Amino acid sequence: MPKRVLQGVVVSDKQDKTVVVKVERRFTHPVLKKTVRKTKNYHAHDENNTAKVGDTVFIEETKPFSKLKTWVLVGQEKA
């Protein structure tokens, strides 16, 4: 089974080797038929502390690094 890859924006880089990434998904509401935006924050492992707040990054599912970190940083675009 392939690992999921999500794209999001770094909202916090204060922790060592960890970034918090906000991922937004859009979908059509089943009753209202309007486009709805939902966001969720993911903690991702950043081995070299390269990502900064505002960067657009790609994260991939992985084995758990800790209680909250089950994602790893795989690529980024500078903001």
Descriptive keywords:
79 residues; ribosomal protein; OB fold (Dihydrolipoamide Acetyltransferase, E2P); rRNA-binding; single chain; 5-stranded mixed barrel; NA-bd_OB-fold; structural constituent of ribosome; mainly beta
Task: Please characterize this protein's 3D structure.
- By secondary structure, this protein is an all-beta fold.
- The chain has a single domain, classed as Nucleic acid-binding proteins (OB fold (Dihydrolipoamide Acetyltransferase, E2P)).
- It is built from no helices and five strands.
- The protein has strands at 5-12, 18-28, 35-45, 56-61, 71-77.
- A hairpin with a 6-residue loop joins β2 (18-28) and β3 (35-45).
- The termini are far apart.
Layout: helices, strands, pairs:
Blueprint: E1 5-12, E2 18-28, E3 35-45, E4 56-61, E5 71-77
Parallel strand pairs: 3-5
Antiparallel strand pairs: 1-2, 1-4, 2-3, 4-5
CATH topology: OB fold (Dihydrolipoamide Acetyltransferase, E2P)
Summarize the amount of helix as a percent range.
under 10%
Average pLDDT for all residues: 94
Report the oligomer: single chain
Extended strand count: 5
Q: Which CATH architecture would you pick?
A: Beta Barrel
Sheet with most strands: strand arrangement: 1-2-3-5-4
Coarse structural class: mainly beta
User: What global shape is seen?
Assistant: globular
**Alpha carbon gap, first and last residue:** 32 Å
Contiguous low-pLDDT stretches (5 residues minimum) are none
Strand content: over 45%
CATH level-four homologous superfamily name: Nucleic acid-binding proteins
Structural Rg = 14 Å
Number of domains: 1
